[in-house]
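ENTRY TYPE: protein
WANTED: fold as tokens:
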Amino acid sequence: MSENNQINTEKVTSVKPKKSSNIISWLAPIGCILVGELIYFYVLGDPAGFKKPETHEGPLNWMARMYEGGPIVPVLIGLFLMVLVFSIERFLTISAATGKGNNANFVRKVQILLSEKDLDGALEACDKQKGAVGNVMKAGLIKYGKMISDTTYTTDQKLAAIQKEVEEATALEMPMLQRNLVFLSTITSLSVLIALLGTVMGMIKSFSALGEEGGGAGAAKLAAGISEALYNTATGIAGGAFAMIMYNVFTTKIDSITHSIDESGFTLTQSFASLYK
């Protein structure tokens, strides 16, 4: 077999690059921080929550105490909202990529159809699956069908062509599955670090007040300041924990889809090797 034929087998593919926009990746952070600022000033900073509304002194509830946590609070609220937004976006995207029905059952169904040499039935099953596994399997099946009637390549070359088609289809699906997960993994630690920064700033402010006033009044301000500073810690830890949980949930789902994709590629090559030697 000539070298030119081998090169052509590797390069010809039916897989087309997907055009997609990820506008949410830069709109969401900006929007969430702005919403966090609005919540901070107009909800937490509602004058009705303070004994002295004009100066925002004397908090009457936990929201007012959060307001006294300082400028770090709106940032933490924004980070928490980011986790919520990206979690919803990832849930919708990964749910669509999972497709209809159970992926393992789908791969087994295609395997049975191929063993019966029902290529059209296998392609129809891929169209019904409507997920990442179905898309990859369909790309491989199209190449599979072309290789059946092709007499210019050896069996090994045909298997390599099918495997390459599956790999290229997989390479186009994976970025869509993993997109924006970096935000969740980053916020997991960033939220806690920013919260600790807010806590330290609050403690510095509290001890400064104690040093200036001293006595009972200073001790009272210190206690109040520590309480307010710890709201930063609580908010940051809550946001970081939420981000970590959602990140682990989505990576687990992606691993499941990836396993099914790998299984689909193995099914195609093994089926072709056994039926069309």
User: Anything to note?
Assistant: Strands lie at 50-52, 57-59. Residues 26-275 form one domain.
